[in-house]
């Protein structure tokens, strides 16, 4: 495949010839004799259908030529609005500057292209703003869920402690009586001494002894 034939077909918008000449996949990004890639010629000459075909085959939308000019800059310099739109939709970097130090927006002479570039910038800024807001909301929700889980764990722990203390209090009296019952069984003289005491006051031993 000769570069001159391909360059001629690209400049003249002969899509069928270009499809015939671009046999290999890597040819779509090959640097031709003029130091430019096929996408530059399509953008420079305003062939939107050629541009879409090359991009569909994997052409690098931001590839610079030997002068550092991207396809978007080429289309902007020549005022091809349809090509500018396609390149932007395919992710062309509009902030890339040419050899003169100007971006596509700064270099554009067409007000329509300037408006298109500005509109795309506004859309991106708005999208970024919404993404940041969504991220902030998601972060807050995660924090709230985490705090809620922590509070739930603390509340559950305290409820368990209260339940445990309540059960211990409920079993405290039977355990004391059981201990005193064993004391009376093992020491029956305690009951006799208590009863014979003139200051006797039934403290539960007698009732326990009577239940033996």
UniProtKB/TrEMBL annotation:
Keywords on record: ANK repeat, Cytoplasm, Membrane, Nucleus, Repeat, Transmembrane, Transmembrane helix
Placement of ANK repeats on the sequence: 34-66, 67-99
GO biological process: positive regulation of cardiac muscle hypertrophy; protein K6-linked ubiquitination
Principal location listed in the UniProt entry: cytoplasm
Entry's Gene Ontology cellular component terms: BRCA1-A complex; BRCA1-BARD1 complex; cytoplasm
Domain of life: Eukaryota
GO molecular function, one term: ubiquitin-protein transferase activity
PROSITE patterns xrefs: ANK_REP_REGION (PS50297), ANK_REPEAT (PS50088)
Gene3D superfamilies: Ankyrin repeat-containing domain
UniProt-annotated location(s): Cytoplasm; Nucleus
Membrane-spanning ranges: 150-168
Family, similarity comment: Belongs to the myotrophin family.
Name this protein carries in UniProt: Myotrophin
Lineage: Eukaryota, Metazoa, Chordata, Craniata, Vertebrata
């Amino acid at each position: 495949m000769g570069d001159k034939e391909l360059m001629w077909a690209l400049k003249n918008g002969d899509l069928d010839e270009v499809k015939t000449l671009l046999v290999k996949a890597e040819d779509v990004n090959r640097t031709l004799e003029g130091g430019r890639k096929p996408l530059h010629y399509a953008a420079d000459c305003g062939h939107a259908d050629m541009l879409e075909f090359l991009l569909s085959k994997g052409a690098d939308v931001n590839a610079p030529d030997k002068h550092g000019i991207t396809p978007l800059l080429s289309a902007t310099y020549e005022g091809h609005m349809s090509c500018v739109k396609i390149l932007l939709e395919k992710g062309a970097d509009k902030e890339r500057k040419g050899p003169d130090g100007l971006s596509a927006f700064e270099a554009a002479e067409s007000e329509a292209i300037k408006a298109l570039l500005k509109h795309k910038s506004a859309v991106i800024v708005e999208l970024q703003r919404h993404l940041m807001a969504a991220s902030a909301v998601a972060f807050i929700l995660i924090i709230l869920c985490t705090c809620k889980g922590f509070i739930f764990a603390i509340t559950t722990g305290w409820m368990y402690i209260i339940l445990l203390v309540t059960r211990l209090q409920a079993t405290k009296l039977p355990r004391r009586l059981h201990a005193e019952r064993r004391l009376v069984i093992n020491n029956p003289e305690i009951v006799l001494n208590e009863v014979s005491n003139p200051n006797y006051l039934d403290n539960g031993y007698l009732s326990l002894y009577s239940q033996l």
